[in-house]
Fold each of these.
Amino acid sequence: MSTTVSTEQSLRQQGEEQFRFLVEFIPQLVWFTDATGFHTYFNQRWTDFTGYTLADSVGPDMWNNLLHPDDQQRARQIWGHSLATGEFYEIEYRFKSKNGGYRWFLGQAQPQFNEDGSIKQWFGTCTDIHEQKETEFALRRREQELERAYADLEVKVTFRNLELEREVHALRQQLGK
């Protein structure tokens, strides 16, 4: 009997060590909450990025205070909806780093359910998408510049056509005399 318990404990310990290794290895900020959204865990990448320890970070709202002010209400609303419905959580938002700058992240979370179907806890990640968002914004700005240039060109062509039509009309009148 003790060999079985020892084997089970060894397997459990091995599984926990592998899990911790994976959580620290992946390039995301990893977080867990209880069923109500109270944060209970953040990985080392969270601490490295935000400068906040796990003890400083746990709670229901601390993470929202690190979001860009323009993203806080939307994030709170989407997270609240997921907590209420158990639906997959996904949002793009800007987190403040320990250096004071903001970076774009893709936040995602999936609930783990109890056997009775109630939410046991949430597992979440924040993936740095800052360069992707900066590229997206640069492309959008370039697209707007091109649209303005095209509109400007279109106006110039229209006015030039009108000028040419007047010139042709004037030449025809001269030739008709």
Amino acid sequence: MQHKCITIRQAGVEDNEHLSTVGRETFFDSFAADNHPADMAAYLEKSFSPDIQAAELAEPSSVFLIAEAEAMTVGYARLVEASAPHFVKARKPIHLARLYARKQWIGNGVGAALMTACMDEATRRQCDGIWLGVWGRNARAIGFYRKWGFLQRGTQSFVLGNDRQTDLILWRPLKSAAAIPP
């Protein structure tokens, strides 16, 4: 069921504690069942403290987009203007570093609303495409990204605590401001 009242806003530096909480929650809900608790705890501590979120929010190359519905945050995304891995050929790429919906909102249009906003932001920044890393065992996310026209270009390592995992690197060129899934 698609939820019709999802709004997207750009996060500000004052959202650091909120993004820390939502980031920890959504990452934990997405990956805890398939990973060792110590590895999860180490990654969450390293990646989602309020200070780390404040630093990421302050980066000029970075933008956080927050999805809201029913007076609550239901998901978020982070884009970073950054070079892509060597096997992604792009003039001005943007990295979709995070895109998460709260567990109870998965399947209600949060991902689509965030992806549309990400495509619009990338186009506004005159980027020629979006790249991302997705865990090779995350079939639901891989299917979502493929529906949006992302294709695999390679792989790279992702370290979760002490566990080295393999991410698929996906790429989608941007040809226009329209962000409509194929």
Amino acid sequence: MSAPAPRTPGGVARLLDTAAGLMIVEATPDGIARLVQVDADQVDADRLDHDEAAPTWFNVKHHDDDEGHDLEPGAAAEHLAHLAEQVEGYLAGRRREFDVPLDWAAAGVHDEFSREVYREIQHIPYGETSSYGQVSIDAGRPRNARRVGRLCTLVPVPFVIPVHRVIRADGGMGNCPEYRLRLLEHERRNVAAERAGKAGPLPFR
């Protein structure tokens, strides 16, 4: 683990203890900048508390002109609170979409193609999948499937950008983390239960 990095101006961070494990999330007044799943041994309990904004090691730099921006931490903390609520609802099977804003610049996503790829991924319906090649086409640049795959690996805010719904053309998941497959299975269980008229929602497991 690297040393703590300077936080984005006006940014706050929070540790979430969820059904899918520990997550550190960071937000600025403009939106969510980062979500990273961590192991318990990566967290300094003396410096990071579940219920308050806390230091983090994210190397987040805001390249936009901050002049005229409200850099009070209240808006950032509000984004974190909304995200925490939505992650909990999603993992409980009650929520199927995230509607928190993202701060692309603070997340390090500066080129328009990358942003468009992530936006297209956000449009993939709950429980369904799309291929790297199709996302590339939808983002306006066919034959860029390999780059889409790379962007899925580098995604700054998983869950909100559901890269677990993007698969290879042959239906494989590639070398994605195991938890992403579990997220897709979680969604498909809830969709199947709903179609079958079974009691729900079903929690992540």
Amino acid sequence: MIIREFRPNDLRRVHEIEHMSFSNPYDVNILKQLFDFGTGFLVAQIGDYIVGYILFWIVEEDRGHIISLAVDQNYKRQKVGSKLINTAMARFIDFNIYKITLEVKTHNKEAVDFYKSIGFKIDRKVSNYYEDGSDAFKMYFNFFEDTEDIDNNHILDDIDK
């Protein structure tokens, strides 16, 4: 499996994964606009087949945000999501971003447990966050409480383990 930058010809497959993963998937045009805007956009590929993707960006000078992470149902529990999020986290570190946030549906136990296993913590619950009226957990990950004098290479070594 390789993790690589999204390319426009990946859009159809990414949209298929988006559609199979979420009850209210992003429209294909939104995914393209996010790419055109310069959002971090990575795909996981096995052979010539895209099996997952992650969208992320820097929302403030010291905070990154995971917009979306999805893995083809047939490739779950094969470390695809972990490799995608670890690669995104390494990109954040490259830009001295040490706090990462995301939202996840409160009833999506599989996703909540996945993020908790990586070290994300629940910050708070937000009622009616999603279009369908579902509640969300706002979750966060802090590499450090104090980001002074950080050795980025040491962090990258830890992420790769």
